[in-house]
Amino acid sequence: MIIFTTNLGDIEFKLDFETTPVTAKNFLQYCQDGFYEGTIFHRVIKGFMIQGGGFTAKMKEKPTQAPIVNEANKGLKNKLGTIAMARTDAPHSATAQFFINVADNDFLDHSKTTNAGWGYCVFGEVIAGMDIIKQIEKVRTARVAGHEDVPFEPIIVEKVTIKSE
């Protein structure tokens, strides 16, 4: 289990190492390396998702490790409260950025092995802190440094705690 302590409160995740081992291990490694500490939730879209894991409060993008294989074809669905990897248009481009679904987002699920159909890999779920996520979802956003939907006041991951189950 992973706990993100933010300036608004704690969010706790359970990762699915059985279904999505590459993705879960990738996320865990970034957590172990302290990568997420000092990053922000940089994209918040009400009724859709909150995204983080790539930028500092000054909107500087952090350097990442190499992209990983997309495991969206393993069957996990982009449902409310799940955590999934963000990526570019290329299906196998996910590195460190992730998002938390604040709604059921079936259109993000894997449908076929084409660029358009690959989907976004769910690799865990929120097990505590949905109240914090709902609070984040409601913040005021603006355009900042060429990015849309950036919270007006930074929502910062201050600390990451890894707990064994």
From TrEMBL:
Compartment annotation: Cytoplasm
Keywords in alphabetical order: Cytoplasm, Isomerase, Rotamase
Domain PPIase cyclophilin-type: 1-162
GO biological process: protein folding
The UniProt record lists the keyword Chloroplast: no
GO molecular function annotations of the record: peptidyl-prolyl cis-trans isomerase activity
InterPro entries per record: Cyclophilin-like_dom_sf, Cyclophilin-type_PPIase, Cyclophilin-type_PPIase_CS, Cyclophilin-type_PPIase_dom, E_coli_cyclophilin_A-like
Pfam families assigned: Pro_isomerase
Predominant location category: cytoplasm
EC annotation from Swiss-Prot or TrEMBL: 5.2.1.8
The UniProt record lists the keyword Cytoplasm: yes
Protein purpose: PPIases accelerate the folding of proteins. It catalyzes the cis-trans isomerization of proline imidic peptide bonds in oligopeptides.
Family per record: Belongs to the cyclophilin-type PPIase family.
Identification of the protein by name: Peptidyl-prolyl cis-trans isomerase
Biological source species: Pseudoalteromonas tunicata D2
